[in-house]
Amino acid sequence: MSCWMPGCPALSMCRGLATLPITCLERAKDLKTRLGILLHKPELGHGIGTSSKLQLGSRRRDSSREVLEWRESFDQLLKSKSGVTAFHTFLKTEFSEENLDFWLACEDFKKTRSKTKLASKANRIFEEFVQSEAPREVNIDHETREITRKNLSGATSTCFNEAQAKTRTLMEKDSYPRFLKSASYQDMTKQATSRGISKRSHT
């Protein structure tokens, strides 16, 4: 825009711009170009949102499938972190969570490599779960208890194997079937099934 009249606003603006350093003008143009690129690419933000939604949907499908797999076998339940958490919550309602805690302690114990730590961990687990009148005594027979006691003298990663197996069998035969029939698990399967039906109806 140009103007020959004295006092014209456009003329004043042009004079003002002319007095600015060239670097300032170049930066202003560069900024304008960048803003233009961002304003004309709304799909960038849209893409990020879509990606997040897809990941969230995928996680929900995975968790739904996982919940339904827990009823296939006790092994499937124990392989799942969220399954173990749900089962532990259920066992608390029956005041028998020490069985699962002992099983988990044994699993952690098997991963120990240091012989010094192995011995100290073995004694701690025995005192907490296995010995008679232990604070969180698990339900195993006297013979298994004595075998485990003897194993402590030369603690290895297998010294709790028999006691762990007995506790696992007890949970599988006794607590696990009740967990599958519990109201909490039934609610979880209903939600998982409804999410599966909803997914199929949208495909």
Taking all Cα atoms into account, the compactness measure Rg is 33 Å
CATH class of the domain at 61-191: Mainly Alpha
Q: Helical segment tally? A: 10
At the fold tier of CATH, the topology name of the domain at 61-191 is Regulator of G-protein Signalling 4, domain 2
- The number of distinct β-strands equals 0
Low-confidence stretches: 1-5, 9-14, 37-58
Largest sheet: none
In the CATH hierarchy, what is the superfamily of the domain at 61-191? Regulator of G-protein Signalling 4, domain 2
- Overall pLDDT: 79
* Straight-line N-to-C gap: 57 Å
Task: Name the overall outline.
Answer: elongated
Strand content: under 5%
Proper CATH architecture of the domain at 61-191: Orthogonal Bundle
What structural class results from the helix and strand content? mainly alpha
Order of helices and strands: HHHHHHHHHH
Which percent range fits the helix content?
Answer: over 70%
GO molecular function, one term: GTPase activator activity
Membrane topology: Lipid-anchor
Domain RGS: 73-189
Subcellular location: Membrane
